[in-house]
Design brief:
single chain; alpha/beta; Rossmann fold; five-stranded parallel β-sheet; 8 helices
Length: 260
């Protein structure tokens, strides 16, 4: 099945939709993740998709892939790292054995990616913003996300789902870092994300924090381990799966970004 697409025109920073993409009944989807994503995946995501396919006569195929791998790139998947692999080192060849978007978009209709919870340790801005810096600051994150949005939009036949950043436990961070993480989350939701393009959010952070600064007690393994608990994963997994289906079937701009 050929991928569906939508025509997009950018006018003075706005996105104008020139034709809604028809619903897809057989989307090829890849979920790029590390350990937090694996916990949610094991909460029942592939099983939910299988049941949906059976009851709706669809053939959505979802694959989970560790990205980036521990070696040779390194176990880092923060805004800098996606910029580094997909923007700075874009092209038809892998970078440190990791696939670029030029490669991934040839294989998949939907690409889902996320960050690990240490990305919510957002330091104060110091000095000039630098898109090529791996320092976790608001100003660097915004530059990197700006470059990523431009890059993702260069592949209009592919849809992208971005998880909002997983939160930390209160005992693992400080109020300043937590407030900056929340500020970045709000910027991503209200400013960076725009209707009418090929980029969508799954608001994992909202589910995990219920609007607060920290992960809710009981939603993580324990006070010093911010990986999702098994109980929370069982609640979140069907919401994640539903969001995937909403996006692949053309409801990305009308469906709930939490999946509820």
């Amino acid at each position: 099945m050929r991928r569906t697409t939508r025509a997009v025109v950018l006018v003075a920073g706005a996105v104008l939709l020139l034709g809604a993409a028809p619903a897809s009944k057989a989307g090829k989807i890849v979920f790029l993740h590390h350990s937090t994503g694996e916990v949610i995946w094991k909460g029942g995501v592939p099983e939910w998709i299988a049941r949906y396919n059976s009851s709706h006569k669809t053939k959505h195929a979802l694959t989970a892939v560790e990205f980036p791998k521990d070696k040779p790139y390194g176990w880092n998947n923060y805004p800098y790292d996606y910029w580094n692999i997909w923007v700075k080192h874009a092209g038809p060849k892998r970078f440190k054995d990791e696939p670029t978007l030029e490669l991934l978009t040839k294989q998949y209709d939907v690409i889902i990616f996320k960050h690990c919870f240490p990305g919510s340790s957002v330091s104060p801005d110091e000095g000039k913003a630098n898109v090529a810096s791996d320092e976790k600051t608001l100003q660097n994150y915004r530059l990197q996300y700006g470059a990523l949005k431009k890059k993702l939009r260069a592949f209009p036949k592919t849809k992208f789902i971005v998880w909002t950043g997983p939160a930390l436990n209160k005992s693992e961070t400080n109020e300043g870092d937590a407030k900056r993480a929340k500020q970045f989350h709000e910027w991503v939701r209200k400013t960076w994300d725009e209707k009418g393009d090929n980029i969508y959010l799954w608001d994992f952070r909202q589910l995990e924090t219920e609007g607060g600064l920290y992960a809710k007690p009981g939603y993580t393994n324990k006070s010093d381990d911010a990986h999702p608990s098994a109980a929370f994963a069982k609640k979140a997994a069907p919401l994640f799966a539903k969001r995937i289906v909403d996006v692949i079937e053309g409801r990305g701009d009308t469906g709930s970004i939490t999946g509820k």
